[in-house]
Design goal:
- Chains A, B: GO terms for molecular function: GTP binding; GTPase activity.
- Chains A, B: This is Methylmalonyl Co-A mutase-associated GTPase MeaB.
- Chains A, B: Belongs to the SIMIBI class G3E GTPase family. ArgK/MeaB subfamily.
- Chains A, B: Keywords: Hydrolase.
- 2 copies of one chain form a homodimer.
- Chain A is α/β, with parallel strands linked by helices and 332 residues long.
- Chain A has 3 domains: 55 residues, Single alpha-helices involved in coiled-coils or other helix-helix interfaces; 214 residues, P-loop containing nucleotide triphosphate hydrolases (Rossmann fold), CATH 3.40.50; 35 residues, no CATH class.
- In chain A, 55% of the residues lie in helices and 11% in strands.
- Chain A is built from 14 helices and 7 strands.
- In chain A, strands 3-2-4-1-5-6-7 form a 7-stranded parallel sheet, sandwiched between helices.
- In chain A, helix 10 links the parallel strand 6 and strand 7.
- Chains A and B meet through helix 3, helix 12, helix 13 and helix 14 of A and helix 3, helix 12, helix 13 and helix 14 of B.
Chain lengths: 332, 332
């Protein structure tokens, strides 16, 4: 009973846009404890259910990818402050699969975005330090949903440039932005084609001072490369496109934001926004089913059976194929 | 009855080392047809079962990774010919996940290894053009088992430098070789740490003519980098190590082979060979179970249910989490 009241309070706090309530709610969805999981699902249900003020709220979800060194934190700081100055509320989340190994966190140090983290219209959430990719995806997805319920206008989902996490972010966001540093033309190959194909807008950062000419060349190179990609139905004329920005001087940030808004508006009008979100929901449904199926292997009698058959395989008394067939038959 | 005789004939052909029978057997394990799968499992069981001449045969399985341009085909050609000249029988297989998309095949063109492909002691098998990663892993694993049953002394498993396929190959081989081209010192970062950690021996190719000094520097750089890695129990003193070779002149190939043999012998004596193979068998058992579980989602009533729930998620009448919970409950 106390728990129910507590859950209702937390939901009300999140729906009212209270940042402390939001932080507590995210901690709840990140928890591995079974009772916390139940409470997290109840909270999400409450916020999205009929009668909730928060139901149906949608933020513009922007995925932001870029390898270390391209100036991602500085970009988020400048871009975020520009948006909050316009009265918009901005949340920043991180997807960092590598933190699972290093124990570190790409957003662990909020001082990287000192001003933004003190801005009352902003909410910055570091990546949790312990999680597997499946867990990271679920946690981030639910954190995004909580930020939307809390009425944030823009949710920035940051990731580092390693294949798998980009895929997760692409399935979470409405727009996918690739942030690059100025480089020699032949470094074009450093960006994987798959990541290029996800990008809606490529931003070449550090277009200031002595690096500006290089940034313009890099932008032109990528603009050319983007034209070689297959046309996607979700793009209006001229997209995907490449632009120059400087997170340090702020140059180009306004133009980049205008492009993002224009693309988002076009997709909303043409129905691509809704169909993308519907497709993402279907993806996450199937992913949850897959994760749940695999997780069940490591509990109760299935786990005992897996261990017993695994021991026979290790001992050489059963081939992997025969053992797998036996395991699958026992589960069917 | 005809099928049984045929299966027995095929098993006998493989066990006798007949290359055409081996090629037919690999085609069988690559097939997606259900009756072929049954026949493939029967064939593998026959070859590995008691009473089979082929039972217990072990090749030295060498995983070979290297990005395009390092001279992998030339290396395989020279290295393979050196081994066959010593009377050894050599099989070459490829793991190429990208071929699933491009429809191409890294070993599709046997003319890349013209002499080796005509050598009666060699067997070269291109990567199948259509497969998903799970399918590639199974197909390659079974093809390796068939090559062993056919009495090959060395099985080379080639892959390109993209993370996921390296992991598959590392779980299939006794030794993992990383082939590199000479490069500037700062290109060291181009090799992912995870792949470095898999390597038993790093070979810097093209150590001939004007590139030799660069190759020696690259070798020294990698030798230094390898020393920074955590010591692994499966390595004797001095391993993992970096060497220079030239696939064109043949320089260093004999020394590289001697190091491979010495490492393999040490691992056999110390039990690391057997425990690695046992661990791999356990890995493949669990992987087969996982693939089987996930595949079952897309058949029969499970598929219908997945589609029905997925449609409700797309329509917005059910959240992904609630739909997943319902799906999982129906499977339990």
């Amino acid at each position: 009973m106390a728990d129910r009241t507590e859950g209702a309070d937390l939901a009300a706090g999140v729906a009212a846009g209270d940042r402390r309530a939001l932080a507590r709610a995210i901690t709840l969805v990140e928890s591995g404890r079974a009772d916390h999981r139940q409470a997290a699902l109840a909270l999400l249900g409450r916020l999205r259910g009929p009668g909730s003020d928060a139901a149906g709220r949608q933020a513009l979800r922007i995925g932001l990818s870029g390898t270390p060194g391209v100036g991602k934190s500085t970009f988020i700081e400048s871009f975020g402050l520009m948006l909050t100055a316009q009265g918009l509320r901005v949340a920043v989340l991180a997807v960092d699969p590598s933190s699972a190994r290093s124990g570190g966190s790409i957003l662990g140090d909020k001082t990287r975005m000192e001003q933004l983290s003190r801005d009352p219209r902003a909410f910055i959430r570091p990546s949790p330090s312990q999680a597997q990719m499946g867990g990271v995806a679920r946690r981030t997805r639910e954190a995004v949903a909580l930020c939307e319920a809390a009425g944030f206008d823009v949710v920035l989902i940051e990731t580092v440039g390693v294949g798998q996490s980009e895929t997760v972010v692409a399935e979470l966001c409405d727009l996918f932005i690739l942030l690059l540093a100025p480089a020699g033309g032949d470094e074009l190959q450093g960006v994987k084609r798959g990541i290029m194909e996800m990008a809606d807008i490529i931003l070449v950062n550090k277009a200031d001072g002595g690096l500006e000419p290089a940034a313009r060349r890099t932008m032109a190179d990528y603009a050319g490369a983007l034209q070689l990609l297959r046309r996607r139905p979700q793009d209006p004329q001229g997209f995907p496109k490449a632009l120059c920005v400087s997170a340090t001087t702020g140059a180009g940030l306004g133009a980049a934001w205008a492009e993002m808004q224009s693309l988002a508006a076009w997709r909303r009008e043409t129905g691509h926004w809704d169909s993308r979100r519907a497709g993402q929901a279907r993806h996450w449904f199937e992913e949850e089913v897959r994760q749940g199926l695999l997780a069940a292997l490591h509990h109760g009698s299935a786990r005992d059976r897996l261990d017993a058959l695994g021991a026979m395989v290790v001992a050489g008394s059963l081939t992997p194929e025969a053992a797998a067939a036996e395991m699958l038959a026992s589960l069917a």
